[in-house]
Amino acid sequence: MWIADNWKDYEVLDTSSGEKLERWGSYILVRPDPQVIWDTPHAHKGWKQKNAHYHRSQKGGGEWEFIDLPDEWAIRYRNLTFHLKPFSFKHTGLFPEQALNWDWFFGLIQNAKKPVRVLNLFAYTGGATLSAAAAGAHVTHVDASKGMVGWAKENAAASSLADAPIRFLVDDCVKFVEREIRRGNKYDAIIMDPPSYGRGPKGEIWKMEDSIWHFLELTVQILSEEPLFFLLNSYTTGLQPAVLSYLLHMTVGKRFGGVVEADEVGLPVSESGLVLPCGASGRWHR
Questions:
Q1: Mean pLDDT score of the chain
Q2: Whether pLDDT at 73 is above 90
Q3: pLDDT of residue 201
Q4: Which of 21, 160, 224, 254 is the S-S candidate for 14 at Cβ 3.0 to 4.6 Å?
Q5: 42 dihedral zone (left: phi>0; alpha: psi -120 to 50; beta)
Q6: What is the reported pLDDT for 97?
Q7: Residues of the chain with CATH 3.40.50.150
Q8: What's the pLDDT score for residue 36?
Q9: pLDDT tens string 202-254
Q10: CATH topology for 97-285?
Q11: CA–CA gap between residue 66 and residue 54 (Å, rounded)
């Protein structure tokens, strides 16, 4: 398993009864997690000192219970700053387990010894975008949500990257790639963090299991002649790391050779010393 263990401002303190106890900077949150199927005693004192608790509803969705939490706050990872705020369906605006991938491609970009053009698809609030830009890449950031793109711009400004070569676009990712094929534009690296299910700005439906193969076949067409890396993430239940590996072998690897690897990603849990699974990633590189 690949573990995101370089955080200072974030920590999974404990897990029990379908929930995880987390420290986000100075604040402690309790949020549901489907991987936590064990029911252990709430030994960590943070369970009684929480600042907010997201309660999952039996009918789906849920709601926040706020005890002592500001509307917005910030945490740092290395030289990057991220604005956080609690919003729909338990999210805060950041997936901290992805930091292990940020570190991975940061090194690849810095060691490339050439200009690197990165395309970040389903780019959310910009964690991967900022890491790539901080490493020196020119980044195109694409997400269907205008609010998420605006949030990513705020994070860029907070990370002193407001003037970095980042192009922020509100667009449906599939349609954007189709247009880039027609325009003949190429990228040296692609980051893809698709949701299990989603809708584009005009109601376009995305379902991971049904859409990802066709989309990978499209996206490989806009890689440059000597690409640097390709990152594919999945939070979809049932798509094991081996599936991501197979997808990358049959698309990127088939065309460019190189190395494909895939594994679960996870976060260390302070109380137990174990690792909480948080999805999977597939990586291709030269």
A1: 95
A2: yes
A3: 65
A4: 21
A5: beta
A6: 98
A7: 97-285
A8: 97
A9: 777 778 888 899 999 999 999 999 999 999 999 987 789 999 999 999 999 99
A10: Rossmann fold (3.40.50)
A11: 9
Q: Residues of 59-81 as b/e, b for ≥16 C-beta within 10 angstroms?
A: eeebebeeeebeeebbbebeebb
**φ, ψ dihedrals at 139, nearest 5°:** -120, 135
pLDDT for res 266:
98
Amino acid at 37: I
- H-assigned helices in the chain: 99-110, 127-134, 146-158, 173-183, 208-219, 241-248, 254-256
| Residues forming CATH 2.60.40.1180 domain(s) in the chain | 2-84
Q: Which of 54-58, 76-80, 139-143 has the lowest mean pLDDT?
A: 54-58
**What is residue 72's three-state secondary structure?**
coil
Length of the chain counted residue by residue: 286
The share of the chain scoring above pLDDT 90, in percent, equals 89
CATH 3.30.420.10 holds for 2-84: no
Distance CA 197, CA 210 (A): 10
Structural contact between residues 82 and 102, judged by C-beta atoms closer than 8 angstroms: no
Report the distance separating Cα 162 and Cα 86, nearest Å: 24
